[in-house]
Structure formats: C-alpha cells, structure tokens
Amino acid sequence: MARYFYYHVIYVGMINVMLFVPWTLIQHRFNGAVSGMAIAIVFGTLISYLTISFILRFPGMGFAEIIRTYFSHGVTVVILILAAFIWFMAGMLVIYSYSATIQQFFNPDMNPYLFMLLMTLAGVWGASRCSRSVQFAHEIMMLLCTPLILMILFKAIFSPWLDWDAIRVTSGYIRTAPSFVSLCAATFVFAGYNTLGIFNRLLPAGAKIKYRWIIPLFCSFFLLVSFFIPIGFHGTVGVADYLYIWSITADSMIMEYGFVYRVLYIFLLLYTALSLMFAMNTWHTAMEFLKACHPKHKPKTEQFPAPAVNWWINLAFAILTFVYAFWTNEQRNQWVNQYWLITRTFVDITTTVLLGWIVFRGSRKKKKQPPIPRDAAVTDT
Amino acid sequence: MLEQIKNEFKNASDLLMDTLDNGYLRMELAYFPSLCDERIKDGLLVPFSYRFDPDEFRRMLHSNPKYQKQDKSEEWANLLLKGNVLLEIDGQCYSFKSDRTFVTEVGTTQVEASLQGPQSAFTEDINLNISLVRIRYNKSILTVKPFDKGSFSHTSIQVLYDSELVNENVLKMLFKQMENVNIDLLQASGQLVKELTDRSHRLFPTLLQTERPDRVAVMLRRGKIVILMNGSRFAIVLPVRLFDFMHAMDDDYESYWISRFLIIMRYMAVSLTVILPAVYIAIVSYNPEIFRVQLAFTIDGSRAGVPYPSFVEVFIMLFMIEALIEASIRLPRFVGSTATTVGGLILGQAAQQAGLVSSIMIIVTSVVAISNFVVPNPNFSQSVRLMKYPFVIIAMIYGISGVAVMFFAMIVYLCSLRSFGEPYLALFTPKNQMNSGHGKD
C-alpha cells in the first residue's frame, strides 16, 4: 500500500505553486535561491528519509499515538494543537490563493467570497470523510490528473518559446550564499512525507515503503520545473513582475488542436483538483490531530457515515478560512505565506527530532529488557 | 384438525375441507385448490381411492419426501397458504407439498441484454432461479440459506454464497440487517434493497440487481453474496463496487481489446452525460473564452435566436428528454413508438426552428440521452440520470470551475460510500479479499 504514500508526495510536490514557493524563489533568484534549492534537495531528502524510517517503527500508529506514548497528556495536547494549526493553515492558504487565482482568471466579476465558499465547502466535505475514503479519493483524483500534468509539463519543457539561456544564466547564481526564505520555501516541495503522520494508521503492520528514490527524483524535478520554467518563458528579469507566476506561465502556451486554445484553462482545472486534494488532506489531518487531543480518543480509519464531530471541526476550519479572507489582502497573504513556509520548516525539523528521540529512547529501553520479543517491544513502546 | 383450521380460516370460502373414507381408512383433508396443482391427484387421491393398498399407502406416507409429519398445529395455516395439502390419518397429521408453480420456463433477458452471451434470465419462481444458479455454479460448497420476510406476504428469500470464498464479516452484517427487515408486503427486490441499505437516501445503488444467472455465477465465484427472492426476476448481489455496475457481461465474452475499448467508452459516456449539460451552461454563460474563438462563435451563433439564458434552455430540453424517457417506459408497447416519433420530431427539429433552443443544445441533449443508456445496469443508469442536475445547478452559479469542484465532490462521495462495509469506489483492491492490505480495523 506504499503507493498511496507516493500520491501524497507527488501532489504536495506540485501544490507548491499555490503556496507562492516559485514566487518566493524567484524574488531571490539572484541572491541565493539556486543554492538554497540545492541545499533543500539534500536536506529535504534527508529529513524525509529519516522521518519515514522513524514512523515506520510504529506500525499502525499515527503521529498523535506515537507522541502520546512518550509525553504526558498536557504536552501531547500542546504539540497536537500546534501541529493541527500548521496543517490547517496549509489548506487555508491554498484555498485562499486558489480562489484568488480563479477570481482573477476565470470569473473576474464574481464576488470573491462566493467561489471561496464553494472551495471551503468542498474542502469540508472531503476532509470530514474517514481516512480510508480520503485515501481512495486521492488515488482516483491523482490518476485523473496525471494526463493533464504530463501534458502541461511536456508542453512547457519542449516549448520553442522556452529560453534555455535565461535558465542557464539563472542557474549560474548557484555560488551565491543561500537565502534562508528560499531554503525554507524549497524544502516545502519535499513535505509530502508528513502525511504519514495520519496515514501510517492505514499501513498494514510490517509494510515497507520501497522505491524511496521517488522522493528526491520527483520532488527535485517539481522544484526545478516550478522555478526554472517561468524564468525560461519570461526572462530573468521579467519573471519577477508577476504574482500568480505559474498561471501566467501556463498562459504562455497554446494548444494547436482541440477545443481549448489556452493551456491556462487546463492548468486551472488541474489545480482545482490538486488544491482540493491538498485542502482535503491537510484539513483531514488537522481534524484527526484535534480529535486525538481527547484523552480517550481511539483512532478509527473506517467510519461510515462520518461522525458529527468531523463536520463541526471542519466547519470551524471553514469559518476560520473566511475570517482570514476578510482580514487579508495580497500583501498580507504573501507575508503569511512566507512565515508559514519558515515555521513549517522548523516544525518539520522538530517533528523529526522528536520522533528520533522517541525511537532512540525506545531502542535503549529494549536493550535493557532483552526478553521481550521484538514485535511486542516495538508496539509497546 | 379440520375444526381448528375452520376456526382459523373463517371466511376463506375457497379452502377445500373434506373427510374422505375409502372403506378402510378415514382421511381428513384440507387445501386451497387455487394454490395447489394437479400433483395432488397422482400423489394422494389415486393411491387413496381406487388403487388403495393400506400397506403401500402407509409406506408412501413415511417414505415419500413430499409427505412430512406435521405435529405443530400452529404451523398448519402457514402450510396451507404456501400450497401444501394437509391430511390427517389416524390422528396423525401430514402435509403434502403440491404448490403450483406458474413459471416452468426460463425467462429471456429483458433489461440486461447481451449480444452473444447466454440469453436466459431469472424468472419469478425462486426454485427455478436456484436451479439456474446451481447449473452454472456446480459446486457442493454453494450454500443456500432460507429466509421468510414480509409480515403479510411471507415472501421466501434464499441467500446464496460460496462458503469458502465468502467474506464472513459481510455475511454477519447481512444476517444482522436481515433481522431488521420490517416490511408488510415484500413484492420486488427493490424493496429488499432499500431495506438492506443502511441509509436510504443514497444517490448511487450500493447493491446490484441483476436478471442474469451468468452474472450471479461470476459474482459467487468472487465471494459475493446473492439474494434470490420469490416473485422477483432480479437477484441482489452484495457487496458490490462501482465497477460492477459499469460491467456488461459481454465484456467477459468479447476478446480482450474489444472489451477494453467498450469499457473505456462506457466510462467516457457516463462522464459526458453527467457533465455535458453543466459544461454547456458554463461555456455559454460564463466562460466562452475557454474554447477557441471559432468554436465559441459557432456556439454563440447557434444561440442567436434564443431569447433566454442558457440554463433555462438546458432545463427545457432536459425536462423534455426526461419526460420522453419516462413516457416510453410507461406506455404500452403498441403506443410506445408514437412517443418516440413525436418526441424525436418535436425535440429534434421543431424546437430549434422555433427558436426555443439552440441547435447545439439539441446535440447536447441527444448525447446526454444516448450516453445515459450506455450504462449496463438500470439502477445505476437512473443514478447517473439524476447526477447531472447538481452539476447543472452548480454550473449556473459558478461556471466551469464549479463543475470541476463538483466533480471532485462526487468522487469523494463515491469513495466514501460503503457497500456492506466494503469500499464502493477504490482502485486496485484485490478481487476476492477486498479487505486485505489496508483498513485493519
């Protein structure tokens, strides 16, 4: 069942467009984005490999259950609420930026909150399902999206309008010292492994996640594409003029045959699916973390129909999203995005360190009590 | 015995009660002539009357499996109503099974036609249906469990499954659900489906009804459970997945590539019928810039004479086509062609010439209608027919991006459905043991 894991890795790798990762990188393209990306590739791969191996030592347990075994209830709740907040923010930011994109490119004369209402409702609807349904839906949406993704990527890479010289010039800045923000932004592309925090509950005991080379390969590819392709289309300087940089880039391509002329629309349809998948996943995870705060919570991966608490938590998320939308504007949203990307990187590192420490403590305990069989020791700890 | 029966059936004038005496033996006899068939003559009356031999007659009573000792007097009424003959000899009561079977011939497929597959279909007689299944699934492990449901109709139900392949959890759930079935008159398998579905407001069927014995055999082989019901031409199969509804039996009989092609075409047709009216509204009223300029102009040109917004047009045409479909189902066969001719003519040419709808809309409507009938299963076809309306409404408000979001919501809905605890829409789950691998609870 490791394939479900890689779906998460792949679409989180692609959603970076909606979280202004390319925009952030491009702002720093002459002062540290390229070297930041190079470091992020190594760092992201390392941290994802580590976290995966740590979490796989606790078969069938989510992040909440793992930390609960080591920390007191109070500490667990604090950690979980922080984690839930970070996850919820991810979904909220994507929904906001996607609604703003749609408002700009699809329905310019529509009330901006109207489309956001639809997006949040779809997010609430998806996230309140049980984990297993969420996983199934991810797989199907992912497979439906694949042809569109491939088409846009190939159109972009083989486009005659793509200026490889601009790309070469920009990549020449690799010797500049890495900038911190672009390092954090680039690390986000590798963040898909974090979904194991919930979906490890669904992995059967003894499951192995094979083919881990997919993570560095695909995520580096997405990272490079989302940074360099816009530069190739708009030039090294002109590229900084745009905020919704990838929508503009997609609009630089046309399809000669078929009903639809501008690739932009295909791109936007694809990102409807990706944004909703991302929102569904992040809100679902945040919801599960919040549910796990209850001291007697027993995680269930299969629930039909969805319990009422799922609805309430997700409705609260939706309301918070609207509150955010009332407060924010383009500048504030940029700012929140940047700080979210930075915070997220630190939370990721903390998570890995925490898990590593728990695993380390567990293995020391195991050495002290050798008679316990291996499997039992792992599940006990 | 007769006294008691008389008390229970006070006003049943069609009940025949008599005391026969052939000189050696007195026999009290009660049965409904309308419920019993001619077998009573050879099986009971002839041996009792002019071919009478006391020893042989007693031997027959004890050895013929059609005769059963009936000591419990409270079951007599039920036995009579099920087409048994009750007789009492020397104070001992026997029943003789002589229920009339109306159907003796195998039916032909009417709803799920097949080009070159078997043409036989289930009938309204449960015994014939079981034999149809047994002939195809010729194994000793095929288990048949009887039930009796409907407090007034006492419809006999048989649950069939392969005892080695069946999923025990599903079986337990089914039996639990069977106990909750609370219905007066059980006359069609659809009623049973409704009762067995844990939530009745579902947009998609989660139990498969089929009239094809070959499909039932295939399903049994996959470890599914089949429910046969007396008086219904349709067997109920559970648990099922969405793909089972989209699967025609011909797919198994055609060569590999042909069947792949047909399956892909069917899924394309379903997505067309669901989203095409919505996309039409979205393109015409919201986002004409999506299409290349020439196409956008063509569409807009065809709408030049139409005086109202596109969704009114869509609702007019969809209403007409739904009414036409409904009329052609309800109309008697001889009048049926009238509806299609009138409908086809008026919907096709006249509506467009009168400037009520655009010619593109006519094409959209016909694509929607034709694609809808590509679905092999009538239940699923109805669900698909209904699904286009939420899309139309969302397209009215949000345009094409709303349609995309709605499509996502539909996929999530389908993925969240369960058919007896088994996932309804999930890819690549192993065929026999859908629970293995994930979902450990």
Explain how this protein is built:
The complex is a heterodimer of chains A (381) and B (441). Chain A starts with a helix and ends with a helix. Chain A has a single domain, classed as Amino acid/polyamine transporter I. Chain A is mainly alpha-helical and 381 residues long. Helix content of chain A is 71%, strand content 0%. Chain B has 441 residues and is of the alpha+beta class. The radius of gyration of chain B is 29 Å and the shape is elongated. The two termini of chain B are 56 Å apart. In chain B, the strands form four sheets. In chain B, strands 1-2-4-5-3 form a five-stranded antiparallel beta sheet, with helices on both faces. Chain B has a five-stranded antiparallel beta sheet with strand order 8-9-11-12-10, sandwiched between helices. In chain B, α5 packs across α8, α11 packs antiparallel against α15 and α13 packs across α15. At the A-B interface, α6, α7 and α13 of A face α16 and α17 of B.
Alpha-carbon Rg of chain A, integer: 21 Å
Q: Summarize model confidence as the mean pLDDT of chain B.
A: 86
CATH class wording of chain A: Mainly Alpha
Following the backbone from N to C, one meets helices and strands of chain A in this order, namely HHHHHHHHHHHHHHHH
Radius of gyration of chain B: 29 Å
Number of domains of chain A: 1
The second-level CATH architecture of chain A is Up-down Bundle
Q: Averaged pLDDT of chain A, please?
A: 88
How much helicity do the residues of chain B have? 40-55%
* Overall number of structural domains of chain B: 3
* Strand percentage of chain A: under 5%
Transmembrane segments (chain B): 225-243, 263-286, 306-325, 355-375, 387-415
Family (chain B): Belongs to the GerABKA family.
Protein name (chain B): Spore germination protein
Keywords (chain B): Membrane, Transmembrane, Transmembrane helix
